[in-house]
Amino acid sequence: MNPLQKKPRLTVELLKREAKSFIPAFGKSHPELLGVTDGKKVGTYVEIKFNKYLQDRYDYESGNAASGIDFPELGVDMKATSIKQPQSSCPFKSEQQKIYGLGYHVLVFVYEKNDDPQAKTAYLEFKHVVFVNEEQTADWQATKGITDILARDGNKDDIVAFLEERMIPGDEIIRDRLADAILKKPPQIGFLTISNALQWRLQYTRVITLAGKQVGVENLLA
Asked: Measured in Å, how far apart are the chain's first and last C-alpha atoms?
């Protein structure tokens, strides 16, 4: 791109398109990653490379610690994770995230890494690139269970008991308020698996399986 030419503003649709175009540009051989076993380091490497790729082409606001996500203007967070254990962590903001979603879209690069000591390089191959719409970023088991309870004419007591069984974070008052909110606004089915921890632990096996087959879960490599 001509350095004097104004870069176009990045949009969600352009981000999804460029995620696919990035794969051949990224390449497969990465000597810097030879011997690296820390998935977080590999994920950060991929994320930095993708941001550099985008910065050369588009104008956009990069994420920071305050925003908490990679593309705050677009409401999108980016994750790169190994196919061996496709998961990541994200900040805990509210117990409602497990029921109503994270509050932003998630772009997931799923890679397979193999080291070749003889060639002195590591090979990274992207197996999946999945875009999960924010409406589908809640927990599968929690939202499926609540939907089933409501379909059977369950009441507030049933929902509170379910929230306790699922160990939704918070005390009795928080779960009571959350049950009231659920009765007023039933959640949509989410497709992430969200495990309780000091941070949420997000697991992506289900969205990888459903990508391209379920509304709100897109297979960007198709």
From this structure: 27
Beta bridge partners of 130: 108, 219
How many residues belong to the chain?
A: 222
What would the pLDDT profile of 160-215 be if each residue is shown by its tens digit?
A: 999 999 889 889 999 999 999 999 999 999 999 999 876 789 999 999 999 999 99
Give the 3-state secondary structure of residue 79: strand
Token pair, residue 132, equals 């999960």
Give me 219's structure tokens. 């297979």
CB 135 within 8 A of CB 44: no
Topology of the domain comprising 12-87+105-137+205-219: PvuII Endonuclease; Chain A (3.40.210)
Domain positions in the chain are 12-87+105-137+205-219
**Residues 123-133 pLDDT 10s:** 999 999 999 99
What is the rounded distance in angstroms from the CA atom of residue 35 to the CA atom of residue 145?
A: 43
Q: What whole-number distance in Å separates Cα of residue 152 and Cα of residue 68?
A: 38
Distance CA 110, CA 124 (A): 10
Rounded-to-integer distance, Cα 99 and Cα 159, Å: 12
Q: Which two tokens stand for residue 12?
A: 């969600």
